[in-house]
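Aim 2 progress update. The chain analyzed this quarter is reproduced below.
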Amino acid sequence: MGINTSAQPQKIISYVVLCVKTFSKEFDLSYIESYRYIENFGGLQFIIKHYEIEHTLSIDDTIGDIRAICSKNGGLI
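Predicted structure tokens:
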């Protein structure tokens, strides 16, 4: 996946879980639907690759970034 981060893996995992949960609530999706959408359209790789920056932003900003990445990669949400 090309993870370039000094963060502990557990912190990244926790942040990914938070992002998926928040995305699912924001767009009225189940957790599984949200995870699959984010993974299929490049959002998961984005979160992991850019964790060092994204976790310093508000969760709303991060969700916006995920949505933009997924949209760029063909997602319709």
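The chain has five helices and no strands. The chain has a mean pLDDT of 93. These observations will guide the mutagenesis experiments scheduled for the next reporting period.
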